[in-house]
Amino acid sequence: MEKAWSYVFSSLLIFFFLQFIQLQASSSMYTRPPPRSIIFTPHNRSDSEPQQVHISLVGRDHMRISWITQKHAPSIVEYGKTPGKYDASVTGDHTSYHYFFYLSGKIHQATIGPLDPDTNYYYRCSGTGEEFTLKTPPTTFPIEFVVAGDLGQTEWTESTLAHIGSRNYDVLLLPGDLSYADTQQPLWDTFGRFVEPYASSRPWMVTEGNHEIEVVPIIHSQAFTAYNTRWRMPFEESGSKSNLYYSFDVAGVHVVMLGSYTDFDAGSEQYKWLQSDLAKVDRSVTPWIVVCLHAPWYNTNIAHQGEGENMRKAMEELLYQARVDTVLAGHVHAYERFTRVYNNKAEQCGPVHVTIGDGGNREGLALTFKKPNSPLSLFREASFGHGRLTVYNRTHAHWSWHRNDDTDSTVGDEVWLESLAGSSRCGVSVHSRSDDDEL
């Protein structure tokens, strides 16, 4: 009966929420296509058995394991390097949240480590159920990131995840819009089960999108309730005061996850944190800087025109002065790659901006681009897919976009990138070239 009432009230909430969104977007020229079908992943385990398992990086040699049980269970993770043999264990904690008449399961979190780099570990949550396997990322080059924005839980998403899993990688970056629950809280549960085979084996580092806000005027004023509770990121370790923005280092790459839907002007906590965070980066230790955010600062698609402009005006100078190498965004349900750019002009010391909001969401693709094409935009296509950033050494990385083409993943766009840390023309200290810099 409680679940039935939950669905009824969730349906009412989504109605009010969509009315609110329509009012906010009434000035947009873009008309969103009708929703597409969602894959509802069933709950087929016992209520005490762990589900929705996912992992994230914490510091240089720890990982946070997150999972949910429907009934009370110990917040313990047992782990080791041999299947079925656990020589270490950690006890974490658990929490839950209410969203009107919806009550989440017990959301457990435990941080394991220190862990050896580039190593397979086997682990079990709550002392029962399935054994999972994770692989820690390396501490030296090369390292490969997968990037998938606006993911959702549809057949398109299923194809994207299958293509992602068909090749090895080290860390997944998700620049916003995860479950597309849009206040229907049971969809957070189906999403957690949907991505578990992938998110339990490699660290998923995420930031929020507009679909994580889940504010209903008057009825529910607290934003990001489900997102912040279910997908806790290592914000405190990076000096941030909010789970909506943070940074982390992995194998010579400094990754900054920014929040498009929290304050970002020059007087905001996020701005001051970003300024401090970038100032601490030692490019001799971490020669690459990658930034992820949701609403793109550069966009030639009709969809979501100008929605990232205020954030660009507020923060672009910080990224430019820090010589950020690339900015990866979502929100627009298509793929687009720009030249190095700063202040709406081609600039050899600016970052390469990429929009990759084409993971497989239920809303469909943003099919229409502005004409004529801007000279800043080098490649654009409305197709589902994912990206891969392989950082080979201190100076060179390879970016590729993989289009979802039936059962096969097809490379639709690719480019070699040179780190601005090794560029004397951009005023960043130049390191001495050594053998590990050879391609």
Automatic annotation (TrEMBL):
Q: Does the keyword Signal apply?
A: yes
> Catalyses which reaction?
a phosphate monoester + H2O = an alcohol + phosphate
InterPro entries xrefs: Calcineurin-like_PHP (IPR004843), Metallo-depent_PP-like (IPR029052), MPP_PAP (IPR041792), PAPs-like (IPR039331), PAPs_C (IPR025733), PAPs_N (IPR015914), Purple_acid_Pase-like_N (IPR008963)
Q: State which Enzyme Commission number(s) the record gives.
A: 3.1.3.2
Q: Name one GO molecular function term.
A: acid phosphatase activity
Chain ranges of the Calcineurin-like phosphoesterase domain = 145-335
Keywords from the named record? Glycoprotein, Hydrolase, Signal
Endpoints of the signal sequence: 1-28
Residue intervals of the Purple acid phosphatase C-terminal domain: 350-414
All copies of domain Purple acid phosphatase N-terminal, residue ranges: 50-132
Tell me where on the tree of life, at the top rank, the source sits: Eukaryota
Q: Which family does it belong to?
A: Belongs to the metallophosphoesterase superfamily. Purple acid phosphatase family.
> What protein name does the entry list?
Purple acid phosphatase
